[in-house]
Amino acid sequence: MTSLGSSRKIGHIKNMDEARPTIKLGFVSSAYNEEENLGELHRRCRVVHAELEREFRDRLNLRFNMLVADNGSVDDSLDVLKKLRQEDPALEVLIHQSNYGAEASAGNLLQQARVFDISVFLCSDLQDPPEHALEMVRTLLERPELDAVLAVKKNTLESPLLRFARRMYYKALGVTSRGTLVARGYHGFGCYRQSVIKEAATFWTKTDVSVRQCLASAAKAPVFIDYIQAKRVRGSSSYGVWGYWSEAVGVLLSGDAATSRLSLTIGSTGLMLAVLLGVLVVVNSLRENNGYSGGTPTVMGLVLLSFAIQMLMFGILSRQIEGLRMGGLRRRINFRRLGSDH
Questions:
Q1: CA 254 – CA 332 distance, rounded (Å)
Q2: pLDDT band at 269; cut points 50, 70, 90
Q3: Mean pLDDT score, 56-73
Q4: What is the C-alpha separation between 113 and 244, in angstroms, rounded?
Q5: Collapsing DSSP states into helix, strand and coil, what is residue 103?
Q6: In this structure, are residues 134 and 47 in contact, taking their beta carbons and an 8 Å threshold?
Q7: How far apart are the C-alpha atoms of 141 and 135, rounded to whole Å?
Q8: Fold (topology level) of 21-256
Q9: 226: buried, middle or exposed (CB in 10 Å: 19+, 13-18, 0-12)?
Q10: Residue range 97-125: average pLDDT?
Q11: What is the distance between the alpha carbons of residues 181 and 71, in angstroms, rounded to a whole number?
Q12: Which among 120, 132, 178, 192 is least buried, having the fewest CB atoms inside 10 angstroms?
């Protein structure tokens, strides 16, 4: 039999739980051949949540959630995820029918993560240390005026050549969108409120821009933190040798400002060449030096070059118009939830 004092104590605990608002915290990641990293990723995310739960237990009921999409792995990643889910039902697993690529996988995760109040997006290869989520989540919980914490790589343990290539890529990425400029070194690692995820998911559905551009544009009141990217210890990158380059080119060209700015540059160059050619012809004519028998091929070459540039400009503009008309028609991702037949 429960004593009166025990009943009062239990009632007090229940009332305290009811008084605290519940916050669903989700750790979100995708995996391709990451069997060696997934267990460690889950463990470290659990440690981060436990630390935050102890810190905010008097004010919040912070619920742990984890969402991982297996992007068509050909190793034992899915088996590892199945075992982890048996041990921890708070882990939800999406099984992609094939490898759709990191970008498309992240776009699907945007759609599925809208149920979380706060989402932490990070890579499953552990190069984005989960421990940084402590500062990120704490910042959003303590500063309601902010809607996102974006992590920016200030250094990495990669080779100097790859670091230089990434630096140039991020610089180019920052000018390919009309939305918020993407900070150099930001690739999506960060902590976001539900409103940011929902808006970013809408951007992803209706445009052709990258996930990181969608997140950066959806974050209206973000704060930035710097971090040093860890070196990959286990597993290998899903991109391969040439995958980085093809992915980078595709992301840059998909920016909603990329084609228009390229067209403007090409058109301005063609116009300047045409004007320069006209000035040269007028000057030579005024000097009565218009015998172009020797230089006619050069003049005609410049004319044709200017004409080709103008045609290329119109071609790019046509491509942009077509992109605006067909924007948002992305490749369909076939997936099911682990434990579901759908």
A1: 17
A2: confident
A3: 96
A4: 26
A5: helix
A6: no
A7: 10
A8: Spore Coat Polysaccharide Biosynthesis Protein SpsA; Chain A (3.90.550)
A9: exposed
A10: 93
A11: 29
A12: 178
